[in-house]
Amino acid sequence: MPPGRRPGRASIREDVRRREEMAKRGAMISAETAQHMKMQLRTFSTKLEQFAIDHKDEIQRDPAFRAKFHSMCASIGVDPLTSRKGKWSDLLGVGDYYYELAVRIIEVCVATRPTNGGIISLRELVSALRIRRTTYTENVSSDDVERALAKLNVLEGGFKVMMIGHRKVVQSVPVELSVDHTNALAISEETGYISASALREKLKWEKERIMTTLRFLLEHEIAWLDLQTSEPTYWILGLMSGSSTFT
Amino acid sequence: MSDFDFPPFYSFPPSFTRQPIEATRAKQTELWCNLIRDYCRVKRIFWLDVSKAKESNLFANPAIDRRLSDEDIQYFLSQLVARGDAQWDPDRKRCLVFWRGPSEWGEMIYQWVEKTGRNGQLLTVHEIRKGSATIGYEFHDLELDTTIKSLQALAVIGKCALVKGDSDDGLGVKFVN
Amino acid sequence: MEHFTTCELTQAGTLATLEGEYTTASIDKVTLVTHDKKATPHVKGLLTVTTHRVVWTDPTRRRAIAAPLTALPSSLQVVDKSNPLRARVIINFGRGVRVNFESRNGPRDRERFTAAVQDACARKEWKRIAEQKAKEAAEKERMGDYVRRRAGAGGVQDRVRMQNMQRRDAINSGFASIDQLRGQAEDLVKIARLFRSKTNSSGEDNELLNMMAEMGIESPVTKEATGGNVAVYREELSRQISHFLRKRVLTVGGLMTLTDAYCLTMRNRASTELVSPEDFRAACGAFGRLKLGIEVRRLESGVLAVYIDSTKDRSGAQALCDMAMEMTSITALDVMQKRHMPIQRALAMLREAEALGYLARDETTDGLRFFPNGFDALLKSSKEGRA
Asked: Quaternary form (chain C) (predicted)?
């Protein structure tokens, strides 16, 4: 446009028309791509159905197969467990195993809460789930349990997995465990219990801090008291093997 | 007399210290009460003599070197009584443990009465407990006080009437349809 | 309309499914039209395709009619009769029923409906279930025979060895299949991602988001997509869950953690009807929008719970009145023990019942007791001959 001249009505109209055309073309491209994707999805669904017919049993019965399957999904960035109505769950039934497991995890945690205050080692949880097994969920692996637990996060019921010492521990109560608490609990790893002198020796704490921590663990039902030793000892039942069988 | 299979909590040291926190203590009480009842059921003990029990390994686990104190034994037995699962002797030296409830025993006896057509007959407690007709039944040789309690439970729901005899064992019972 | 008969709904207005039946598509704002001009119109209802039937539910969710897929011909079940102004098809029940898709996404709804009906007719789930049952019965019979004939260590060992061999083969082929599946899935994910990055906002976006949700590529944005399979499914779920939880939550004082509610709801369902925690969470999230009389609240501890305002609810108060009549009078401790709720909640419930006139209090040195109150209570007790 020559300088100094204002755009005439004709050129404005031209601009508008060009923009409209581009938008329309853009919309057509979008529509085309959407169509293309829809077709792909339909083809994929059919393949998934075939996969289901061939391997549905294995998903239910074989932890190794499940592990491979889930690592495949993770590597391409899909979560097959999000919705019962998602393609994976709907056609492959891969979700059912985990939803059932999630429910049983909740039940075990609720049942063992009076004994362990809502703190249970992952190993003990898996062990408890295996004992309560049905034919439907025979081979529970700790991978499976962790996957199911990850799904439970969305219900915000205080469920979380954490490290205490070298072990993975599942918490099922909305109690805030401080660094002091977890460090103290870590001391119980070898023996199953902690004591004031153990905390003093290994963590170099003074009396006030020791007493506060021990009292917290007792009051929250995480520790049981034993007065038949030279000094009082505090047993962390949730981290001991066999504690989940106290019914 | 069978060998008793102790439950898992019996092998955990803190189980033998009465827990100071109420919620934990409640769980501990439940575990001990169940243990006492199961132990009495398997060993077919009705009257639990406290001092005798102390000599057994019911309240002490030598493998882990832990035992319940005398006070704690009294405590847990009292809890058992409070739940209606046991009854103290007047001097608290013995405890009648209902590892099977009186009404359950009563029902068993009543079913035997019906099955053998003894309705309307006058029977003695002795017959029921020691008679040859009850051999093979679980309530055969049932402890005396427990038997009386069971029959009382039946009387309360109108399934029998108790008739006084010279001794407790001579006590008569008439079962009603 | 031929082949359509009245269909059973639950109290929440959802479909009472047959054995093994499940929904494959749910489409809102659908109108059914027949040849018969005198018939009642079926306007803008919810059209549901299941593995066994086609169901139309009226907008109030109180009436529903359904026709079995077995009544459709073996081919050309659905014929497209759309024009530029409206999306519609004819579904060949009897002399044909016209189906008008009247939502904003008419063409897409039509596609979904057609695909769902065709898939269901091809799959014949009703037949598969029957055959499966027969197969299982036969298998059981055969295994029984085999075990009887092969009783003895040798036979069992052989069988185990064979099974192990079969499993090993199966696992190897299974892993290869997973790799194959991976290739196909990856392509799909790539397209979805590419598309997402190119477009800003258009009507198609919603559809894409729905597809991504179905593929398990969730993000905060996909959760907002409406109308797709996942979203409609979750809305249905919302109604079902609210209906199921109502009484149970009131019984424990009007408050229950989401985790407990999930557990309770799942335990009441068959293993094929379980839902993911995300489904459950999303369904609960829709309570407010769908006005279902129950809501999600965050407790002080940070935990999520479902909550029903029991002050307006009389059934809880009536239940307490009944309890008081049975026990002559009740305390907060009684309610706490019998109903398994925290003592503060029990006390609050007693006060609420008192405020509604179901209970009267009596405060003595022994403590606070509540007696049954009200004309109803007197009437009931005099009827039963009590003082």
From this structure: Component of the endosomal sorting complex required for transport II (ESCRT-II).
H or E stretch covering B97: strand B94-97
> Are A30 and C204 within 8 A, CB to CB?
yes
| pLDDT tens sequence across A174-188 | 998 999 999 999 999
Q: Determine whether the interchain pair C274/A62 forms a contact, defined as Cβ–Cβ distance below 8 Å.
A: no
Q: Chain B contacts of A233, Cβ < 8 Å?
A: 13-14
- Regarding an ipTM greater than 0.95, the answer is no
Single out the residue in C307, C334, C354 at which a domain terminates: C307
Give whole-number Cα distances, A133 to A70, A87, C166, in Å.
22, 27, 25
C214 Cβ contact partners less than 8 Å away, ≥ 6 residues apart: A41, A83, A85, A86, A87, C228, C229, C230
Interface of C with A in 185-224 (CB under 8 A): 185-189, 191-192, 195, 198-199, 202, 204, 207-208, 211, 213-218
**What does the alpha-carbon distance between residue C146 and residue C155 come to, in Å, rounded to a whole number?**
9
**Could you name the CATH architecture of B8-97?**
Orthogonal Bundle (1.10)
- Cβ atoms of C320 and C357 closer than 8 Å: no
CB of A227 less than 8 A from some CB of B: yes
Q: Is A245 part of the contact surface with chain B (CB cutoff 8 Å)?
A: yes
Residues B28-75: tens digit of each pLDDT? 999 999 999 999 999 999 999 999 999 889 999 999 999 999 999 999
Q: What is the CATH number of the domain that holds A178?
A: 1.10.10.10
Q: Residue A228: which domain range?
A: 97-245
Q: Do both A36 and A88 map to the same domain? A: yes
- Give average pLDDT by consecutive 10-residue segment, chain C, 387 residues: 82 75 84 81 89 89 88 85 87 89 87 85 79 73 56 49 56 68 76 61 61 71 66 88 89 88 90 86 91 89 88 76 87 85 83 84 84 67 50
The whole-angstrom distance between C161's CA and the closest CA on chain A is 17
For the cut 80, the answer to whether the pLDDT of residue A57 exceeds it is: no
3-state DSSP assignment of residue C82: coil
The model scores a pTM over 0.90: no
CATH number of B102-175: 1.10.10.10
C39: containing domain:
5-125
A165 in the same domain as A103: yes
User: Is residue C131 in a domain?
Assistant: no
Lowest mean pLDDT among A151-165, B80-94, C336-350: C336-350
CB contact under 8 A, B31 and A246: yes
